[in-house]
Amino acid sequence: MEAAVFILSLVDCCALIFLSVYFIITLSDLECDYINARACCSKLNKWVTPEMLGQGLTAVLMLVSLHWFIFLLNLPVATWNIYRYTKVPVGNMGVFDPTEIHNRGQLKSHMKEAMIKLGYHLLCFFIYLYSMILALIND
User: Fold this and answer.
1) Buried (b) or exposed (e) across 46-58, using 16+ Cβ within 10 A?
2) Taking a C-beta distance cutoff of 8 angstroms, is the pair 65, 12 a contact?
3) Residues 52-101: tens digit of each pLDDT
């Protein structure tokens, strides 16, 4: 059972790593003017909810399987994703809004956030991999 939890978390983490890389590539394309702001924000907003659900799934899995340290490691990122999603101003297209993405350095902050999440998901990937191997050896 424990190995199955970590295998599922590992697969979920791989998807979140891919999503973080996708966010970085799309934001850097916007930064270099390869795509316009509306197309970029439309692409990114489509993946905000799956990212939030993926992070929430991992947090709930760790809570249910009583892995407190890993749950507490996942909780801040899951909470941040939910906070970001719920605090979208009325009238905006989504978390990424084409009319505001070039204002007040939002593009740089979104890029920094995507890089931090990539590093976080890579760290979690190796924690889940180690825990999965340990669980398979103990079974």
Assistant:
1) ebbeebbebbbbb
2) no
3) 999 999 999 999 999 999 999 999 999 999 999 999 988 888 999 998 88
Distance CA 26, CA 13 (A): 20
Q: In the chain, how many H helices and how many E strands?
A: 5, 0
Is-above-0.85 flag for pTM? yes
Of the chain, the end-to-end C-alpha distance in Å amounts to 9
Answer for the pair 65, 5: CB distance below 8 angstroms, yes or no.
yes
What's the confidence (pLDDT) of residue 1?
84
Joined tokens for residue 48: 């905000």
Buried/exposed code over 123-139 (b: 16+ C-beta within 10 A; e: otherwise): ebbebbeebbeebeeee
User: Residues 6 or more apart from 52 whose CB is under 8 A from it?
Assistant: 78, 81, 82, 85
